[in-house]
Amino acid sequence: MEANYLNDTVVMLAATVFVVVLFLRIGLPPILAYLVVGITVGPYGLALVYDVEQIRLLAEFGVVLLLFTIGLEFSAALLMHMKAVVLGLGSAQVLLTAGVTTVVGVALGMVLESALVLGGVIAMSSTALVTKQLADQTELQTRHGRNSLGILLFQDMMVVPFLILVAMLSGKAGETTVLTVVTALTEGALVLLLIFSFGRWVLRPLFREVARFHSAELFTLTVLLVVLCSAWLTNQIGLTLALGAFLAGMMLSETEFRHQVESEIRPFRDVLLGLFFITVGMLLDISILPDKWPEVLAMLLLMILLKSVLVSSFCRLGGWNAIDSIRTGLILAHGGEFGFAILIIAMETNILQQDEGQIMLAAMLCSMMLAPLIIRYNGPIAFRLMRESVKQSQREIKQEIQGRAHKLNKHVIVCGYGRVGQHTIGLLQAEGVECMAIDVDQTVVRQGMGDMKPVSYGDAGSLELLHACGLERAAALVLSMIDFHTAMQIITHVRSVNAEIPIVVRTRKELQLFQLYQAGATEVVADVFGSDQMITEEIVSRLHLKSS
């Protein structure tokens, strides 16, 4: 048995390496490669891997670690600020998507029980896929990124009620009473309070004590212990493991160890997350596709159109602009991992017949295979759908930036107004150097403007907007964002029109130093172990910018 398990592992890893390399060569996201590997080597494909259940149990920790690292980006204060999105947009999306799907299912001849379960399945989107893809694209902190995450958090919380519904429809919940529901809710509130209290009063001194030993192994073990304990607690009360991990990450985001924690956990997360998507692909019985492809296609189109339209509409009603609303709808227009959990139980308890379940499974997998492409190009798709609105918005943004920059000369343009961008602006102003920043995150821009800082909303990847910032008069350009591809794009654009302006770039990966220098960066600051203060001071000192 151990030999079989080792054989399965070797086969799966070999196939994964080969397919991921192939997909990267042709410019496709690795997530698609993982799904293809699962379909190919799984029991319904070439049947090269048999013990799917063991692999699936291990793969669940990939989702757990992903939600933990996402939690590191969101403090308790930010989550409270997002409560309108989580409870408002999230509840509207889940309940109405499930309701509309149920009505359509009954109209198409499904029994009510099957239609209700189908509604719950379609209401879910993939937290793992969305958060990873948006993180890779540095869009998590944008308005459409935060909207998407807020809705996903509510979806995660609704998994338990949907699972209870499935149990009741299958006749296995006869003992479920109002008292048991109230008891479960009380236990949930107590556990969440315990996690928040632990995070506030214990985690910071705990990690300070661990850091004193300067042991990377001890630090990593402590991080894993905190993640798994939090996930175990939420799982004990019937909530998802992923929700507990997210809360643990959110607690650690309040400490000074946030970035070290993220760097230690990232290798585990990426490997296990890839394994999760492989197990998703293994569930599909591809033998049904030749006969059932019209039903699969119809279900796929229904899912994508229904969810994108509903989510976009709710965002518009919530006061967001048309572009952000459409982008949020596109990001969530697919199936999700918790939808698979509901679907599998429904198939095992015969609420859904095998044919119905496999059609739904195939449609969900197809939607997840399309999702990385839709999410990657959510901006261009939304802009194409709202071309005139976008042109008008771009004109307004350009005019606003020009109004702020027209008096500036020999100034520094800072691309990105995150943590490091804010420190950079502060140090430049302290040195008496004129400067301005642009960022695509409207929240931080609004906060910066409220603090009377020289920051405007805009996409630094647009050469037209950089010219609006006074690029031809600027003394230097600072790229404070981490995203490598965005930095390369900006450097290439700027060097095509200005070969002399100093460009200082921040990167978190030392391996990218050479590529950035080759592209035309004047200085590259590696943000690996240094503090924000050290990074921004180095930027100022390398530019030799002092007040006259």
What does this protein structure show overall?
This protein has 548 residues and is mainly alpha-helical. It contains 24 helices and six strands. α22 (484-495) links the parallel β4 (476-479) and β5 (503-507). It is globular.
List keywords for this structure.
548 residues, mainly alpha, 6 strands
What would you call the shape?
Answer: globular
| Element-by-element helix/strand order | HHHHHHHHHHHHHHHHHHEHEHEHEHEHEH
Name the quaternary structure: single chain
How would you characterize the largest beta sheet? 6 strands, parallel
- Which consecutive residue ranges, at least 5 long each, have pLDDT under 50? none
Counting H and I runs of at least 4 residues, what is the number of helices? 24
Number of strands: 6
Structural class: mainly alpha
For this structure, the CATH topology of the largest domain is: Na+/H+ antiporter like fold
List the strand order in the largest sheet: 3-2-1-4-5-6
Based on the structure given, which CATH architecture of the largest domain is correct? Answer: Up-down Bundle
End-to-end CA span: 75 Å
* Overall mean pLDDT: 80
**Domain module count:** 2
Radius of gyration: 25 Å
CATH class of the largest domain: Mainly Alpha
Helical content stands at: over 70%
Tell me the fraction of residues in β-strands, as a range.
Answer: under 5%
